[in-house]
Amino acid sequence: MNDEALATSTSRDQEAESPLRIGTKAVIAVYALVASGWLLISLPRVALPGGFGLLLVVAIGGLLAVAHRFPLPLHFKTKLYLDTSLVFAAILLFEAAVATAVVAAGVLIGNLARRESAEAIVFNVAQYALLAGVGGTILGLGGWRQLDVAELSLGELGLIILAGGVLYLINVVSVGLVVALEAAWPARDVWRRSWAGYDRTDHLSYAAQLAVGLLAAALAHELPWALPLLLLPMFALSAIMANLAKAQERAAAALQGSEGTLAAAQRIARLGSWEWELGSGDHRWSDEAYRVAGVDHQNFFPTQRSFLAFHPDDRPGAERTLQDAVSHGLPVSLDLRLGRSSPPRLVHVRGEVVRDPEGRAVRLVGTMHDVTERKAVEDRLAFQAFHDPLTGLPNRAFLIDRIGEALARAEGRPETVALLFLDLDRFKEINDHHGHGAGDRVLVETSRRMRDSVRPHDTVARLAGDEFTVLLEGIGDDDLPAKIAGRLASALAPLIDVGDRHVAVTASIGVARGAAGGDATELLRAADA
Length: 529
Known about the structure:
By secondary structure, this protein is α+β, with helices and mostly antiparallel strands. Helices cover 59% and strands 15% of the residues. It has helices at 2-17, 22-42, 52-69, 83-93, 96-113, 118-141, 154-183, 187-197, 200-222, 231-269, 287-293, 304-307, 315-328, 372-386, 396-409, 427-434, 436-453, 480-492, 520-527, and strands at 72-75, 78-80, 271-277, 283-285, 332-337, 346-355, 361-370, 416-424, 459-464, 467-475, 496-497, 502-503, 507-514. The strands form 4 sheets. A 5-stranded antiparallel beta sheet has the order 4-3-7-6-5, sandwiched between helices. A 4-stranded antiparallel beta sheet has the order 9-10-8-13, with helices on both faces. Strands 1-2 form a two-stranded antiparallel sheet. Strand 6 (346-355) and strand 7 (361-370) form a beta hairpin. Helix 4 (83-93) crosses helix 9 (200-222). 32% of the residues are buried.
């Protein structure tokens, strides 16, 4: 059983790094209590086998110990335990209580020989005892009698298949629950991913082990002398699989080197990769994708909902884009704010649909790039390109563009556009007598007073030196430009503190009106006349 190896490796890893979680220990304890309680109650009620039956008990228990001590190498990271065959043979040959005791003893000896952790031993023994107990109970309730292959009915065959299927489900559920508790993942997602992760080979491997178990039980009953002949193909299978595992290990080592290089490149570029299986809903992220998203891959389980855990304002657009990609094959390109961070980080997501040979969309693959710093630099450069660095006011390029937009909006409307041009008087004298620092203070304070004196939608800009403008839109009152000009003059009247003294500032103000569809440069020139 491959899942047993998964549970064992999980126990080992967790033991090496940190103690098992309380929930995991509680589940293992419940498994152990149920298995031991069932044995204590049921075992005294049955007659223990003697003679050849006792020999079979010792043989199956010993083979189970050997199976756990020397698992077949299905993969260099995964072991195949041929214990399913032996468990199945035990429940076919013995009563449920005897089969449970034999299986528990064999698994215990094998795990002790492998020097497993205490938690792994308790879990493995309890799990296999439950499998044997449940399987034997199902056969007993179905009226199972002493195995006779020659007289095996369809009903009994169906009962055997039912028992095998139930054992399969118990194995997936029990191991998945422990993995889910230990990894703090939703158990339902772990079960679904476990089932989806099994391919046809996994199912055939399990069915083959059940068939071997049935064959072994039949031989033990009808031709016990032929039972050792099963060991020869088992040894051959072990050698073949060992060679395959070595080849896979070499290939995986080469792949791991390539993946390590890719992971380093992703880390340097802050570019993570992701995959979304549309059929199962499974998500796979690279390590860098977890870092970009600001989550810990040990405690975060990627799903469709968590994948879309962006800023609430960005989520509807992201959902529409992903749906269009799946439905119409459109590429994915989104700038999204991560809702988990404060302030939100900006992530650029790209992706495309992968289709099967029949043209059906089977998965989305893409990248996740943290562009927060790049976007900040772009915004800063864009601001600097259109704003005065000293006062923060829009510059000439920004003003020309804004005047053009205002004149275009004035087409067919009764309101007009006006431009005020302010030139500070004697500003050169302030620079010459008090220094450029004082001149800068005057410019900054002047820009503040001008912003406070106009309407919110009016545009105050600094052209160069001591020249400022105010763009007025939506003028329905002919006297409004003069009123705002007077307001600006009044705002500039109070003395300005330049450090060691106060200076007076006045301004010459020119006014020009713009006609709908007019030229922005001409309007600026007219205001400066």
